[in-house]
Amino acid sequence: MSSDGFSALAASVGRSSGPSGRPVVCVQGLGFVGSAMALAVASARDPKTGQPLYDVIGVELSTPDGRAKVSAVNAGELPVRSSDPKMAEAMARARSTGNLIAVTSDEAYRLAKVAIIDVHLDLLQEGGKPKVKYDGLKAAVRSVAERVPEGALLIVETTVPPGTCEKVLAPEIDAIIAQRGLPPKSILLAHSYERVMPGSEYFDSIVNFWRVYSGHTPAAADACEKFLSGVVNAEKYPLTRVGSTTASEMGKVLENSYRAMTIAFMEEWGRFAEELNVDLMEVVSAIRKRPTHSNIRQPGFGVGGYCLTKDPLFATVAARDLFGLPESVNFPFCKEAVAANNAMPIRCLNRLEGLLGSLKGKRLVLLGVSYRQDVADTRYSPSEDFVREAEKRGATVVCHDPLVVHWTELDRKLEPELPDPSGADAVVFAVPHREYQTLNVASWLGKSRPVIFDGNAVLSKPQRSALTQAGARVFSIGRGEEAAS
Ligand code: SAJ
């Protein structure tokens, strides 16, 4: 039984776990998605017996980062930072049950009844055109297909251009099946896109959230449905089967293109509101009361993160590179949305430069470097573009973030305490972290009176009023300037 294999592997990583008789699930990639998925699968229980359904093996690359994640899991610690207590609880459960380990060896896939692909697929730019190089993803999927037992299910969760499973991955798997002398289609390929939202609802965004899925074959779709039904609270959050893996892949890309576009759309309204000194956030919250418009977005400091910065461009890649469609099938809204979102941090900087007269020699305090509230993820953070350009224009920028101790992209160590605002020409609120939303800003400023720039609707009305009453100039994206009183 594969569980003997599991307990042998567990022993090899210093974990004692006797044979359990449980089927093994491998999760390839322990990033923000794979880590949470591995915990969700390890937490899955048989509704009749209450016993764990699976033994789970996280599989990472043998890189410093991959090995660090593996060591964390095997020490019973989270491989990613999270403020969601349910993630820590899930890890504690898995540790006491002994049904979650991690390795860097691909040999683990030989034990897998199910393998979940959670590796990344980056978008590149070549000659100004979005491009995807599939080599990494193909190699990752090959490493699984070459080892899993006949009948195993491969679920691709990675966000990919529509058509990837059918036109890129299935041919790879079919070739391996033939090389291994297995019956055709005997390794099942399915796609179910992840809707993981790192933050306060991280764990629930998997187990208590809707899932869309499909299979390259009906048998794969059936196996995927059976598996997900045991991991997700499918009674309360029903699964939705769509007609093909391409439809499932399109679902994800469309969801995030929609979100990126609705955010970009608000940028011009933010500029308009600032000129008219209308509080756009007040207008937006009034509109949200209407159910059909409850999801209207708001302008901010920029649109960062690994999802919305690339997903809207995957449609173009699919149309051109996977389906060879004519240029007439293009995506101007997606393209414009990404451009508008990417321009936001520099627009904020230009607005600030207008308030200060010049950035040369100025000292700025930047509060918030992650790409969004309540996460430590700095990938594609708007704050990165802001800092790079501000320093190019001669400013000095002191950065803080309650969740980031080392800002990888800028290789900058951040102090945990709030910086001293004295001597600052401006304080820029870039991310609505809870710490800033509850900060007594006027008190923190003391006698300093820097320009206060709220780039992301961070400050409440009381916080802004206390600042203007203390004689500070306050400018907010989407609101405009509030004169010191
Ligand atoms: N942002 C705005 N204005 C808004 C909302 C967001 O400027 O009204 C900015 C944020 O500051 C951030 C960026 O956009 O820089 C992205 O924020 P996000 O809330 O969209 O968070 P993401 O990028 O993590 O998006 C993910 C997506 N989830 C998945 O792909 C599984 C997205 O589909 C979700 O809608 C989103 O989380 C969510 O709602 O949390």
Please tell me about this protein's structure:
The chain has 485 residues and is α/β, with parallel strands linked by helices. It contains 16 helices and 18 strands. The chain has helices at 2-12, 32-42, 64-74, 85-97, 135-145, 164-179, 204-207, 218-231, 245-276, 280-288, 311-322, 332-356, 382-392, 434-437, 441-445, 461-469, and strands at residues 24-28, 55-59, 100-103, 112-117, 124-126, 129-131, 153-156, 188-191, 211-215, 239-241, 363-367, 396-400, 406-407, 412-413, 426-429, 451-454, 474-476, 480-482. The strands form 4 sheets. The chain has an 8-stranded mixed sheet with strand order 3-2-1-4-7-8-9-10, with helices on both faces. The structure holds ligand SAJ. The site of ligand SAJ has 20 residues, from helix 9.
Explain the layout of strands and helices.
Elements: H1 2-12, E1 24-28, H2 32-42, E2 55-59, H3 64-74, H4 85-97, E3 100-103, E4 112-117, E5 124-126, E6 129-131, H5 135-145, E7 153-156, H6 164-179, E8 188-191, H7 204-207, E9 211-215, H8 218-231, E10 239-241, H9 245-276, H10 280-288, H11 311-322, H12 332-356, E11 363-367, H13 382-392, E12 396-400, E13 406-407, E14 412-413, E15 426-429, H14 434-437, H15 441-445, E16 451-454, H16 461-469, E17 474-476, E18 480-482
Parallel strand pairs: 1-2, 1-4, 2-3, 4-7, 7-8, 9-10, 11-12, 11-15, 15-16, 16-17
Antiparallel strand pairs: 5-6, 8-9, 13-14, 17-18
Helix pairs in contact: 2-4, 5-6, 9-11, 9-12, 12-13
This protein binds ligand SAJ.
The site of ligand SAJ has 20 residues, from helix 9.
